[in-house]
Each structure stands twice: as C-alpha cells, then as structure tokens.
Design a protein that fits this description.
Elements (H helix, E strand, L loop, with lengths): L3 E7 L6 H9 L7 E6 L6 H6 L8 E5 L5 H10 L5 E5 L4 E2 L3 H12 L3 E8 L4 H19 L9 E5 H6 L11 H10 L5 E11 L2 H6 L1 H18 L25
Parallel strand pairs: 1-2, 1-4, 2-3, 6-8
Antiparallel strand pairs: 4-7, 5-8, 6-7
C-alpha cells in the first residue's frame, strides 16, 4: 500500500491540535507520516505538537514565518514523501479507522482526488442538520459539475497535486475549490468516500452564526455555479484558532 502523508497547517491551535494528533496516534493501522506546518503561532501550538514526537513515529513539526493556509499546505506537501497527500484542518478529530478506510478506498476505487463525509462536534440536532447540508453540498457540487474537495479533508494523489502546481498561495478563501477545479480540468474526477470518517469543528459557524455562515457559502456557490469562479477574498474569514471561543469539550 502506498504511504499516506498527513499535512496539518496550524496557527494558534493549542486547544485543538492535540486532539487531532491524539486521534492519529490511535489509528487502527499505522505507517503513515505526519507533518505540522505552523505559521508562527503566538500560543503553545508548536510546543504541544512536539509532545507527540515520540508518540507518532513518522512525525515532524515545521515552524514558518508565513501564516498562509495554501502556502502551509504546499510546504507540508514538499516536506513529505507519501504517494498520497491528506490535507486535514487542525481542529478536526479522526475516527480510529480513518486511515484504514482511506487505504481501502484507494485500493478499491483507484481515485485521483477524494474526500469523505463528516459529523459535527456536538450532539445538537441543528449541528447535525448543518453537517448533513454540508455533505450534500459536496455531493451536489459533483452533480452540477462544479466539484469541490473541502479544505477540512482533501486526499489527492501526489503526482496529480504536482501536475497542477498545488494550492494557489495568493488565495485567502476558496483555495479548496480552486485546487479541485485545476485537477478536474486535467480530466480527473472528484470521488466521495461515503462514510463518516472525521469530526468537523463548527467553531466558525458558532462564532459567525449559521445564517451568516450559510449565506457566505450560498453566495460562493451561486458564483461558482454561474461563472465557475469562487470568492477569492472574504475579510471576515480569518485563519487560526485565536478568533474563536474554544471549548475543548465540544471536540471530545
């Protein structure tokens, strides 16, 4: 089985990153590599990441002066050697069979780029409905030929990623859609592993409110649908953990 490289960009994620790394340490299969690419966090993100040096056998942490999501993802890709690149947000939690199911899907379907379903970080019915809509949004993007592999989980073959030049470093929003479009323009198809494999943090939704958040993505979706272009800049969209109320219990 070709090796998977897990790439995690971070900025001030001390309250969330340990949960993600702990979930990686508990995977039913090992043998993958992990790189955390930090954008000069002001909190204890880097120190807490290094606490996993002896827990995750193929693990590295890189601290870089640039806090830029697509740049950090690209840098992480360049620091790894796996045939498959797995981009994950620092505030996610992976279910124990996450890696096992990714490998199974790759062996069975031979994809070039794919993502999976997810569940929310709470038992609130409204959150469950929101994530259902989000999962259906990804499915709908394929039906309407505007596919998007969402930023919280994108799995892509390294040769395909390199072919399109990776993420666009100039984008502060919509870099996931841009990457997917560049890849599908080369004749590759986005696939969906239709199983719930990770827990998505809804901290951004809670801060901004569901209506405001859904309106932002509705605007982006309509722009994509009618023009094939995405919103490239959203002033209120800030990378990192510092803008949010962070109750770790929500991610347990």
């Amino acid at each position: 089985m070709d090796k998977l490289s897990i790439i995690i960009p971070t900025l001030n994620e001390e309250k969330f990153l340990p949960g993600l790394l702990a979930s990686l340490s508990k995977q039913t299969v090992q043998g993958f590599e992990v790189v955390v690419v930090d954008g000069s966090s002001k909190d204890n993100t880097v120190e807490l990441a290094h606490s996993f040096d002896s827990i995750l056998p193929n693990f590295q942490v890189r601290d870089h002066v640039t806090a830029n999501l697509p740049y950090q993802r690209n840098l992480g890709a360049s620091l790894t050697s796996g045939e498959w690149l797995v981009f994950i947000d620092a505030d996610s939690i992976l279910l124990p069979y996450f890696i096992e199911r990714l490998q199974g899907f790759i062996e069975e379907h031979d994809p070039d780029i794919f993502t999976s379903w997810f569940r929310p970080d709470s038992e609130v019915s409204g959150d469950a409905f929101f994530t259902l809509i989000a999962n259906l949004f990804v499915e709908g993007s394929i039906i309407f030929r505007r596919p998007i592999a969402p930023g919280p989980l994108t799995v892509v073959r390294r040769t395909v990623f390199d072919l399109v030049g990776g993420y666009d470093n100039s984008l502060s929003f919509g870099e996931d859609y841009d990457l997917t479009q560049k890849i599908t323009a080369q004749g590759f198809s986005l696939q969906v592993l239709r199983e719930t494999l990770y827990v998505l943090s809804l901290r951004r939704v809670r801060r901004d409110g569901k209506f405001r958040f859904m309106w932002l993505y509705a605007r982006a979706a309509l722009l994509v649908l009618f023009t094939k272009r995405n919103l490239n800049k959203v002033p209120s969209y800030v990378m990192g953990g510092h803008p949010y109320e962070t109750d770790q219990g929500e991610n347990g």
